[in-house]
Amino acid sequence: MRIATWNVNSVRQRLAPLLSFLKEAAPDVLCLQELKCEDAAFPRMEVEDAGYNVVLHGQKTFNGVAILSKFPIEETTVGLPGFDHEGQSRYIEAVITHGDGGVVRVGSIYAPNGNPPETGKYAYKLKFMEALTAHAAALLKLEEATVLAGDYNIIPENRDVHDPAAWAGDALFLPQSRAAWRRLLNLGYTDALRAVTDDAGLYTFWDYQAGAWQKNKGIRIDHLLLSPQAADRLQRVEIVKAVRAGEKPSDHVPIYAEFA
Fold first, then answer.
1. How far is residue 27's CA from residue 5's CA, in Å, rounded to a whole number?
2. What is the CATH number of the domain that holds 34?
């Protein structure tokens, strides 16, 4: 089973590369972030024609999350439990029955950016992470294969950024943000990528400005966190870097994990 996540940075603008990714990478489940459209404007027909069931939590112009699945979606949770999202569509969760009759629980997450950190935006980011941690802890009690995937807007470590000093004052890399990330790991979740490699310089985001892509000035902020039941089945992880070089690319690229 292949589970992927991708911040598409406007699904309507990125429809062609999205459909290409669905065809070429053929994920069984794909979590999307930053749809930037309301539910009615989502290209549902095109995605369903590609062989996917869709659940989404859209928002006009900003945010928006979705889960696409080749398999039946049994139940859906819209919005992050315990968090007053104030009209911001940042979380959706689904229980998916896969080919052998088993189930996997998948969350698609678009965490707040938090910049500038001296404003209320950073406090909002930390509140979101607190609620996510509480919900993630509750999910572990279900003892299910669970994958919490998405754009966490957190750079976990120095090896996940091209120049740590350049990002030292950014909300994505502040000590409080990284501590929030570690609290999720300390619950018992596994960072899928770090379960298979310790390599530095593995990025999922390159800014559109200042030739960041061409100079490989990237950061890793898109993650798949796995419950113990999911981590036990993990086989491989891949960042689909080539997507960033395509036409009309998102500033993020997909990352997927494969499970036995």
1. 9
2. 3.60.10.10
Question: CA–CA separation, 137 vs 210, rounded Å?
Answer: 40
Tally of domains within the chain = 1
d(Cα 248, Cα 47) in Å, to the nearest integer? 18
Could you tell me which of 192, 131, 124, 150 has the C-alpha nearest to residue 57?
A: 150
Contact 233, 260 (CB under 8 A): yes
Domain interval for residue 137: 2-259
Chain position carrying tokens 């999922």: 204
Judged by phi (left if over 0) then psi (alpha if -120 to 50, else beta), residue 139 lies in: alpha
- 216 within 8 A of 162, measured Cβ to Cβ: yes
Spacing of C-alpha 223 from chain mean position = 6
- pLDDT tens for each residue of the chain, 260 residues long: 999 999 999 999 999 999 999 999 999 999 999 999 999 999 999 999 999 999 999 999 999 999 999 999 999 999 999 997 678 999 999 999 987 778 999 999 999 999 999 999 999 999 999 999 999 999 999 999 999 999 999 999 999 999 999 999 999 999 999 999 999 999 999 999 999 999 999 999 999 998 999 999 999 999 999 999 999 999 999 999 999 999 999 999 999 999 99
d(CA 78, CA 208): 31
* Cα separations in angstroms, 218 against 106, 170, 202, 212: 26, 14, 8, 7
Rounded CA-CA distance 190/259 in Å is 14
> Can you name the residues that pair with 108 across neighbouring β-strands?
92, 149
Angle formed at CA 204 by CA 200 and CA 207, multiple of 5 degrees: 110
Closest CA to 129 of 109, 146, 149: 109
